[in-house]
């Protein structure tokens, strides 16, 4: 962010309480005014005349057994979302595709809040309706809030400070908060997905009462642009665009959601999914995560003929923290010195050179790519915040810049493996007979990395090899996607690779990532099992930050505390989106750089589809 933009954002944030309180607003923002202002008409990159029609084919690895994504049990089908509405439900507001921390109207046409941030009121769009023609009501919103907070770990943490939702008129819902000063809470209530109370409290075709707390394979009543047309349990789900979708002409929908049909075919492993893409017909777009495959494998006939296109989309959004997560619910990882020791054998530089074609960059922060990332030594307001907890924090946090090992020379491996052994020794572990063992009990240092695809093996193997050089017995187990999801939801693992995406305005979701309460809540994203009172306090400091400057300082402090406690072994990021796609699409020349690419703004080109079908049997 430029200096001017920072000043503008600070000025905007400081003025929120005075100038925006108790006024109705359409577009909402947590950082600065949206580039569209309050008069949002449509995204500036879309083709407002994009044709509707065609089929978008996708492949999903694994299987599914539920159409209820908001509970821990079951594996939701493609098209559903654990947070948000997916293809079937609309939310109160819609998060912008081309700006961070901005939302535009969807089910709600406007919202307001008082200057002390003690509540928020949302006003429904009178046009909003369910697919059965019934209107979306304030009762639907109140009921949705209640059941989601009771059953969804994500929504429970996200809306922890929201005590109740009350219908105050036939179009307005007021959300009450148990604390004042939670500056982002009025805005993020727009992320609430709205569910049909009358449908969920009704009965199915057999007369059995539906239960929102249980998995189901009954296609649900929705409100969004798509509904389930057909499915084969565990292997396929087909979504059909709703021809009379109530929101089709809303600004957030113009030029988007153009495919008549979206088909998701389930395949059990990544290799089979890759083969399906190369043949055509089952997967139209391949988001590529493998550097090796991107560099070497796109040489099959359709690529050479120009019928499959490789394209790189640069992104400007925050970079995720991709890392090996060390599960502190296991006694083996409860010592910070041990966790630090495990960081040193990860040789990113050699991996990047030999495996990733120098396409990746090492991750050094949980808030990489933003002004929220900590750096150098703590100072100013960040230091003031951290001083309160000095006796509970690693002393190095105040005197050393956090740095990860850099394998930039042949002697680096010896240097860093020795540092790892020294840290293990301080923690009570020694090498005997070539094995790292507990000095008191003789128990070996042994753990398992849990994965679900071949990429896990690529990432883990070099780390495992270096760990074995210092006697640590690390192994990798690859299991199917369904088992993997269930085990992660129940924290049944030693180590996993997780990808944690942050925003430019962190807030209430941090509880789900780091809080002590979330550590004991199945389905939360506190994968490390962190139970640290300082982290809890810093999360609250972020949530109740008084302005942007205070938020940045508090986030710097949290980032630094997380890093110095070595809860994860950071891996890497790539500031681009790689997409390969069958040349059957039209798309706007401009794509939103914040997201990289908005596939919802693409459309099927009948002439291109016809040409491909004539050349490739699988596309007929």
From TrEMBL:
Originating species: Mesorhizobium captivum
N-terminal signal peptide: 1-20
InterPro entries reported for this sequence: Peptide/Ni-bd, SBP_5, SBP_5_dom
Keywords assigned: Signal
Main location per the UniProt record: periplasm
Pfam families reported for this sequence: SBP_bac_5 (PF00496)
Family: Belongs to the bacterial solute-binding protein 5 family.
Protein's UniProt name: Extracellular solute-binding protein
Highest taxon in the source lineage: Bacteria
Compartment(s) where it occurs, according to its Swiss-Prot or TrEMBL record: Periplasm
């Amino acid at each position: 962010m430029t200096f001017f933009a920072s000043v503008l954002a600070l000025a905007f944030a400081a003025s929120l309480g005075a100038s925006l309180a108790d006024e109705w607003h359409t577009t909402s923002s947590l950082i600065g005014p949206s580039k569209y202002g309050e008069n949002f008409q449509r995204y500036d990159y879309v083709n407002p005349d994009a044709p509707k029609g065609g089929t978008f084919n996708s492949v999903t690895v694994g299987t599914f057994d539920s159409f209820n994504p908001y509970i821990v049990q079951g594996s939701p089908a493609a098209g559903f979302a654990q947070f948000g509405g997916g293809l079937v439900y609309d939310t109160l507001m819609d998060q912008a595709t081309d700006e961070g921390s901005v939302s535009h109207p969807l089910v709600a046409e406007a919202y307001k809040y008082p200057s002390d941030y003690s509540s928020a009121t949302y006003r429904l769009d009178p046009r909003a309706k369910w697919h059965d023609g019934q209107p979306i009501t304030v009762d639907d919103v109140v009921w949705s809030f209640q059941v989601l907070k009771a059953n969804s770990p994500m929504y429970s943490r996200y809306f922890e400070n929201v005590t109740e939702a009350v219908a105050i008129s036939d179009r307005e819902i007021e959300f009450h908060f148990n604390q004042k000063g939670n500056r982002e809470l009025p805005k993020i209530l727009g992320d609430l997905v709205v569910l049909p109370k009358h449908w969920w409290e009704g009965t199915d075709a057999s007369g059995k009462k539906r239960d929102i707390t249980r998995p189901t394979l009954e296609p649900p009543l929705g409100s969004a642009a798509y509904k389930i047309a057909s499915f084969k349990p565990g292997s396929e789900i087909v979504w059909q665009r709703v021809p009379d979708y109530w929101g089709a002409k809303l600004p957030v929908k113009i030029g988007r959601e153009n495919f008549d049909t979206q088909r998701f075919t389930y395949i059990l492993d990544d290799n089979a999914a890759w083969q399906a893409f190369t043949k055509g017909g089952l997967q139209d777009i391949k988001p590529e995560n493998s550097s090796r495959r991107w560099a070497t494998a796109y040489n099959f006939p359709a690529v050479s003929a120009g019928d499959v296109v490789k394209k790189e989309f640069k992104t400007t959004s925050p970079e995720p923290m991709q890392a090996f997560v060390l599960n502190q619910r296991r006694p083996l990882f409860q010592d910070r010195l041990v966790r630090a020791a495990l960081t040193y054998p990860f040789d990113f530089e050699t991996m990047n050179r030999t495996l990733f074609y120098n396409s990746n960059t090492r991750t050094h922060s949980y808030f990489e790519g933003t002004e929220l990332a900590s750096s150098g030594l703590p100072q100013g307001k960040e230091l003031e915040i951290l001083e309160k907890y000095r006796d509970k924090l690693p002393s190095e946090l105040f005197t050393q810049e956090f740095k990860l090992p850099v394998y930039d020379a042949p002697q680096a491996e010896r240097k860093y493996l020795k540092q790892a052994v020294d840290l293990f020794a301080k923690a009570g572990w020694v090498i005997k007979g070539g094995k790292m063992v507990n000095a008191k009990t003789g128990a070996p240092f042994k753990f398992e990395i849990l994965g679900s695809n071949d990429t896990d093996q690529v990432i883990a193997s070099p780390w495992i090899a270096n760990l074995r050089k210092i006697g640590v017995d690390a192994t990798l187990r690859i299991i199917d996607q369904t088992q993997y999801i269930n085990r992660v939801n129940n924290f049944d693992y030693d180590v996993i690779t997780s990808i944690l995406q942050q925003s430019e305005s962190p807030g209430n979701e941090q509880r789900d990532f780091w809080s002590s309460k979330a550590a004991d809540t199945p389905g939360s994203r506190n994968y490390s099992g962190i139970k640290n009172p300082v982290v809890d306090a810093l999360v609250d400091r972020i949530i109740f930050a008084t302005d942007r400057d205070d938020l940045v300082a508090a986030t710097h402090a949290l980032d630094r505390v997380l890093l110095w406690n070595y809860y994860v072994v950071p891996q890497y990021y790539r500031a681009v989106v790689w997409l390969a796609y069958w040349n059957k699409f039209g798309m706007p020349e401009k794509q939103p750089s914040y997201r990289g690419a908005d596939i919802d703004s693409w459309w099927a080109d009948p002439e291109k589809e016809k040409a491909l079908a004539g050349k490739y049997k699988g596309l007929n």
